[in-house]
TrEMBL record:
Coiled coil: none annotated. Belongs to the AHA1 family. This is SRPBCC domain-containing protein. It comes from the Bacteria. InterPro entries: ASHA1/2-like_C, START-like_dom_sf. Residues 13-133 form the Activator of Hsp90 ATPase homologue 1/2-like C-terminal domain.
Length: 136
């Protein structure tokens, strides 16, 4: 079966610990990810949920669970998708580069359309993260 994946990499002007906190502290995550009602239980098997607010005000409830947690290095999150038996996994990898951090997001999908939609959403997430860290 053919798979469709993407990998996005950005280097942000913040130390790795601050970037990790942005992804794992609910209050911080809500600020940069345009999310409300954020709950993050960051441990393998721990659940997460959030209501994403997109431009125009539409709200989308999302939920899932963490499958891998390596503090300050790697976070693998599953997202529940209606109509799918298995969650869609997103991998976040962090690599310290002095006072900066290289952030890599990757996902794999069954169709190019799903991949393209997710890649667009992940670019929006990285834009929000970059802005949040620059203002902090």
């Amino acid at each position: 079966m053919t798979s469709f994946d993407y990998t996005l990499t950005r280097t942000v002007d913040a130390p790795v610990g601050k970037v990790w906190a942005a992804w794992t502290v609910a209050e911080d995550y809500g600020k940069w990810a345009s999310a409300e009602d954020v709950v993050l239980d960051v441990r393998p098997g721990g659940a997460w949920s959030a209501v994403m607010v997109i431009p125009g005000g539409a709200r989308f409830p999302l939920s899932g669970a963490y499958t891998e947690v390596v503090p300050d290095k790697r976070l693998v999150m599953g997202m529940n998708v209606p109509g799918r038996d298995e969650p869609v996994l997103m991998t976040l990898e962090l690599e310290a580069e002095g006072d900066r951090t290289r952030v890599t997001l990757s996902q794999t999908f069954d169709s190019a359309e799903e991949r393209d939609q997710a890649e667009q959403g992940s670019n929006m997430l990285l834009d929000g993260l970059t802005g949040f860290l620059a203002a902090a």
